[in-house]
Design a protein that fits this description.
Layout lengths: L1 E7 L3 H12 L4 E5 L12 E2 L1 H10 L3 H5 L6 E3 L1 E6 L4 E5 L12 E3 L2 H13 L4 E5 L3 E6 L4 E5 L4 E9 L6 H5 L11 E10 L8 E6 L6 E7 L5 E8 H6 L4 H10 L2 H6 L4 E2 L4 E6 L8 E2 L2 E3 L15 H20 L4 H26 L6 H16 L3 H9 L3 H9 L7
Parallel strand pairs: 1-2, 1-11, 2-8, 5-13, 11-19
Antiparallel strand pairs: 3-7, 4-7, 5-6, 9-10, 10-11, 12-15, 12-16, 12-17, 13-14, 14-15, 18-19
Helix pairs in contact: 1-4, 1-9, 2-9, 9-10, 12-13
Length: about 400
Amino acid sequence: MDFPVIIVGGGPSGTVCSIHLSSAGIQHLILESEKFPRDKACADILTSKAIRELNLADARLIKEIEKLPSYQDIWGTLLKIENNEVLDIPYHALEKDGEQASSFAVRRKELDELLWNEASSKPFCSAIDGEHVKHIEKKQQGYEVKTRNGISFRTSFIVLAAGSHNRLIKSIGLKDKEAERHTAIGLRAYYSGVKGLKKDRCELYLRKDTMPGGFYIAPLGDGSCNVNVVLRKDLVKRKDLNLREVMAVCFAQDSALAKRFENAVMESAPIGQSLHLATIKRKKYAEGVFLCGDSGGLIDLISANGIPQALCSARLAATSIAGIISGVYNLEEAGVWYGMELERTIASDMKMGRMLSPLMGLSWFNALILGALSRGQGQGEGGFMQELLYAEEPWKALIQKLNPLQRTH
């Protein structure tokens, strides 16, 4: 069977790319290895850029997402450094003087199924879940995509949106040599019955022995919460860490947290995920093949969030393919444009992570960062933390904060 475009992976980047292709009138196929509904380890947080990307894909999507059982508006983060007091960092509204939250929490199991159903219901889209892609082979013209069930498809373009460590990336010659400090490992569990959750606030706990990384709690609209630990892989290997043990230690070393979780129920066993960080620039295009989302290594080191970048890459991949089909670009020009435009679009989000990445494995630097943030807690500097969050050049604001000559006494 032939399709002009095949999307491998039915997560947010794959389905949003599909929606854009349908809007452009381009026939395509989505192949997802698992059956929906299916779960994925994630912090379950969508930020303002993700919301705007969803609106660009289909203005109806946010309203549909708001109906999901676990949907919850998020208006800030409660930050706790070591055993200091909690600092409340409020978020701005999505639009100036608006009332819509700029961030929300929703279970990926619900979000991904909704996006799959929306994409597969569009014209020009064919969608098959439970069809695992085993191999991609370059042909004289285009590619042959073979599934584990023995089905073969022919296509001119592939959007590869099947995760960080999918072997298909290597098969098309785009897999970089894995660097442990450019990779993160996350563990996520859902809990119900947790005391003291603030419905509109996430919680972030930072400790020097778990940096680069942190312990994070996101409240969900169904009364449960997402609890996750994300650490950089070089730290995990160097200290021989087990993320389940790290999660247990985070509870045990914070007496207030331990008390809040003493009668909580873990819904199911924690699940993990390994992710390529965007702390280095990776090649995201081969002839007619576009890497999107986690396959492109687009996770931000600072927030550990990759959904906004995934949705952006989906839109740009669809735009590139439409440009080739309409004759605006040839294959090489489309690949160059895709890589440059994606890098330009996400650059402001990646700059701080890329700058700090070489330093965040050093204990003295982590102590310096935590010291500056702790002083902010002691002074109740919610204003500075909000300024840092929304600064156009956040790394400069942080450096000024770390500079002892800038401190007031």
